[in-house]
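For reproducibility, we list the full input for the phosphoric acid mono(formamide)ester complex.
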Amino acid sequence: MSPHLLSVDSLSRDQIDHLLRVAARMEPIAQRRQVTRVLEGAVLGNLFFEASTRTRVSFNAAFCRLGGSVCDTTGFTFSSMAKGESLYDTSRVMAGYCDAIVMRHPEQGSVAEFAAATNVPVINGGDGPGEHPSQALLDLYTIDKEFTRLGKPLAGAHVLMTGDLKYGRTVHSLIKLLSLYAPMRITLVAPPGLAMPDHLIELVASRGHRVEQRDSLASDYADVDVVYTTRIQKERFTAEMSEGFSLSRDFTVDRAFLDRRCGRDTLVMHPLPRDSRPEANDLDVDLNGDPRLAIFRQTDNGIPVRMAIFATLLKVDELIEKDLRPVRWFVPTRVGVDDAVL
Ligand code: ASP
Ligand code: CP
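The corresponding predicted structure, in tokenized form, follows.
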């Protein structure tokens, strides 16, 4: 495996399957039943130059749960990039302090540029509208885990992706990952001007998947196994695009859509954050508590998957079980009050 995780393009099917298997072995630690110190002494540098809750905190928590420590910086204001320091210099400096680095940056390609200056593993936590490979891995892990629970095969699955497919980096990485698996049916539903880039549609179609584009969720959809909805990435809009833009309610995934168009075991996923302001028309809160809503199981899966990424890149994946002991503190059976009992 490449020393860095910058794009899902660098991962073979075998490497992806290995990461998912390592993630499954991390579950007892992620679920706070066991403790390991396999990364004791190691230091992670978390550099976030764009807003983040999940990626920043879960990479941090994953490293800590492996026994390591974390140093972080958020925003340009508190980094010396505000004084004009280059990605190259920042990278070399951070490599002298840290054993692994996670970076999120608003410009596509910037994390790869940063990684080119260091031999310390660098993970892309999101580079502008480019990619978000760790999110795609946790999305795939979620789909695989939920399908196993539901007794469904991934081969032939019908995945519907909706929302901002143009700027949504999570769907860019996810569609590429899914394309490495047995042929599926992929339906893409985007508002005008926010369609999935053509090169990704061509790539997925060339790998034998059936890809269809629709312009509204009001169309007829049959046998949808996964609805993957995304937030409109307004922070990437030009001033012209922002002017007067509002997302029609036709793109909202809610209970009515699910009851009308989907089955009892359709999964609803979203990389989050969902924009909960009413005018945003993002994923509706009326599905909260519905077992089909997998969004918080998805965020929980960020921990074992990110632990697996660290353990694999830092080559301790074979040592995890040697170092386990039971936790000693109180952990509630369900961490969320509305968590579905499956
Ligand atoms: N959190 C995801 C990302 O950073 C999705 C989003 O922000 O809408 O790409
Ligand atoms: N899914 C995701 O990347 O969330 P954050 O933007 O909160 O990190």
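Residues 134-296 form a domain with the Rossmann fold fold (CATH 3.40.50.1370). The mean pLDDT is 96. Both points were considered when choosing residues for closer inspection.
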